[in-house]
Amino acid sequence: MHSNRKGDVMLKYVLKRLGYILVTLWVIVTCTFFMMKNLPGTPFDAERFSIMTPQQQERVLEMYGLNDSLPMQYVKYIKNMLKGDLGTSFTYVNQDVSKVITGRLGPSALIGIQAVLIGLAIGLILGILAAWKHNSGIDYFTMILAVLGVSVPNFVAAALLQYYIGLKWGALPVGFWTGWNCSVLPSIALSFSATAMVARFMRTEMLDVLDQDYIVTARAKGLSQMKVLMRHAVRNSILPVVTILGPIVVNLMTGSLAVENIFSIPGIGSLFVDCIKANDYPVIMGITIFYAAFYMLIVLLVDLAYSLIDPRIRLAKGKES
Amino acid sequence: MKMMKAAVALGMALTMTVTGASAVFAEGESLSVATDFEIKTLVPWAASEENAFLVLNQAEEGLFRMDENNQPQPALCDTYEVSDDKLTYTFHLRDGIQWSNGEPVTAADFVYAWLKQMSADATNGYSFIMTDYIVNGQEYNEGSVEASEVGVKAVDDQTLEVQLKSPTPYFLNLTTMDMFFPVNEAFCEEQGTNFALSPDSMLYCGPYVITDYDPAVGVTFAKNDNYWDKDSVAVEDAQVRVIKDAAAALSAYQAGELSQVKLDSANVAAYKDDPEFSQEIDFRTSYVQFNLTDDVMSNVNMRKAISLAMNRSALTDNILADGSAPGFGLVADGMSGDGEKTFRELNGDVSPYDPEQAKEYYDKAVEELGSAPSEVTLLVADDSVSKSVATFIQSELVTTLGLNVVIDTKTVQGRGELMDANNYQFAVTAWGADYDDAMTYLDLWTNGTPYRGNYNDADYNALISDAKTQTDDAVRLDDMLKAEKKLVEEDAVVAPVYHRGSAVLTKSNVKNLISHPIGVPLEFKYASFE
Amino acid sequence: MDKSKIDRSMYQKAKVEASEKEHIAAPASTMLADAWIRLKKNKAAVVALFILIGIILLAIFAPIFSKYSFRDTDYNNVYGLPSAAHIFGADQFGRDLWVRTWMGTRISLMIALVAAILDLVVGVLYGAVSALFGGKVDAVMQRIIEVLVGIPSLIIVILFLMAFPAGVGTIIAALSITGWVNMARLVRAEILKLKNQEFVLASQVLGTSKFNIIMKDLIPNTVSVIVINVMFTIPSAIFTEAFLSFIGIGLAEPQASLGVLINGGYQVLRMYPHVLIFPAIVIVLIMVCFSILGDGLRDALDPQMRK
Known about the structure:
By secondary structure, chain A is mostly helical.
């Protein structure tokens, strides 16, 4: 009875949030669509386009659906989008936008996931150690790292890493993509902010937990330090880390724009920047939709996970971040 | 559902990336070069970028192929005849030439590809390279004549006949370009919109076949066993890799991952004395285009002053420092003239540096305009070299003339659009020769479009049209020499700035990796390892 | 049982001087003054504050007192190494990097300032109005926020920059689309909490206008939330500009933003590391200082948050 009602609330909440996501997506699609048409230039090499015959120019515009009026183009785009068709790329001749994007998912996902894993692993260890040895060397080290991690711009970190580890030391390949070993440095570069955020958050949570009565009780019972730490403290403070996964993923998305460009990774981030420079409208639209939807779903998932973990959080209020 | 799909796709992509990683580039002696842009398309009538030409030139072949002296040598064509009026070319194809699937390459394959390039389907903007020369090409492009009336015909499977509008001494050079390569009609139509998207959706008739193609990663080649001249192809495996960052490319070269690498200007000084170092000049000129309908730039003395005020050698020596040559003329250094001397040697410096004279012209211009312009706006593209050039021009004009320049940076596309819309004062732009003849440049200023500064001069146009119909090569050359002098020196419609050069390092064991200053940049066919 | 045992005479009326009634034992201390005292005890925050002040002064005065301008070229000193004349060396055109770095810092700080003002004006007002008016106004305003919050801001900023001419104005306009949303949400939540407290009720009963309630009662009490949030908005605005300029779609030559300078240095890192190092150090310093100062302020303004 009780759990059923809770399930209803949950379902209602998820539906409501999904509704917002759709509205937001529509706003983004609309804004992007009209803003993009304001981008300087055409998707074609102006020098070449200017020497085409009028027939050819018209043919080209027709091929890319650019000869309709703007509202008509918009209506057509929305219609096709609802059918799941994001159109054909202008610069990747004859290739579907969805194919162009999914073709780039692999490298982006690989470095993204690796960066999260590195961030979680190192961040958790540092956070736990820092809290356990409060005010010790490792604690100060962690705090310094946490400040640097969030304040050194990721493109500076990536550039230095590429140069000193990749080029000077020659340890790992940079600048092209031949597989996993090329993903190591970018993943590390990308993981800095995640490491910093996790370490800092974990340290705070742990300090909180270590102050709680049940820890004091456990210690009083004569449990060994290690057991207290692992069985009670870590277990109770690790779950809330889920709540900062949202901001971490968002950071990774912006970070990937810089890191992918610096390391020449054939991922979504570098595709996005390239396509903006080349005025490839359909791909720009596609990536914007993809990024926005991904971002909002992650935030939703994190909120749900949060409410499952910590029943004190009421869903209706949402999360203030 | 959508999420599910995305998740599955993601998972698949991930496994593919990880497992497929080591197989992409095989070990062993393989020729590997880098390109700094993605290879976005290999469809011949859609590709307009140099790196696509680079790839297609290894995997396909036309009637002729350039040799190390930039002279066209018979390739798929065995022999040819030219009529006395120099208007009809008859090409006889080699015996036994085959596509990679074993089918014969026929004259009809050439006709299909050429017609496609001349049709409105061609989106690369290169239709002119055929329609300007081939009878009824322009009309076919505009849709007013049928394909059968165009001056390119397959007489039989091995004979191709081409009718030209006017005598064109460099027509054989044109046939080495990728737009003139054959395409198998049946195969292409069967592939439809998938044509040339993957290694399987292409047929090859060149020295190599493509085994792997990813726009963002690069292209892997293997020797083509069906190639007519496979015995002279020494290198078995080759790659073109996308490496966008020059510094990364250099370290890949040092790590032995690349056979050749281009140096950017900051690194040239450090490698100048290296035995692997060499410099080349491309047939490509960067120049300032003045807009003749602009209030300030319509003044010829102003234009002359600006052109004379630029110390081009300082730019090429100190800032670019990559082997580029100062632009003392529009037609690039090294382009052919009368067969003995180059065009540049024959015509001398038509855009020299002379600060005193520049100042005189400037004072005259200010007098004629009534007052000195408070500032002028220079339109440039947003790549780092263009920005460097713009910053150089800005500082030269302010120090020599006291003329303030505002730099307006736009994407390449944005710059082009503004120029097309006649919405600029003067702009930095560039033209790369499509063939080794001065006409590739001089022809551009006859159409009077805003992109070409609205220059519409009867005398100039007369010189060009005479050169185009002239059968006497000496008169033709003289017309073009005069035309360049008029365009650059007398009317100062453009101010050439520099001719692009490139500094490269090549591994000492790589021999005969030939590069051309025009069109196709590199030839893998003749290369070998020592 | 015997009530009469307690006699009135057992009590004596206390005598309190009227003046003493009004006496306050400790000097009146506002919240900000308290915070300042606490902040001063935080050594790291104080150091960060001084470094920031130093950077601001250098950004203002270094270009004025240098004999070079940020656009003077000198082809004899291309990529010149740091020397007495050029403290940070010279770039590709022989331009003085000392001046260019501080010019770039000016741009970064200007963007930070505008972002902060925007946060303060739009964000705070939006949140306050939404919370105070409540009802339908709040509902509508919250729906708008729900939509805006879902937008990945960097994407919108990038598109905005491509669609309009590159420049400081465009970057600021782009940042302003979504930059204030977080502040509005925080302020609203804080005010909702305060709104039902007695002192606000008292103000209302006394007939204070809504505007005055916002300005005099509510906003001063949300100041800690506001200040803390601003301290996190500023570095993210600085970062966004530098980031966009670095990937080549922000500011452009001859403007010397830190992102532009770092990008220029990155291209030649192999041969001329000094071109990258100095602007990179400055931007890292700015970010680190704001971050430490932000932490310090949070501890100072909101002692319960202190860990």
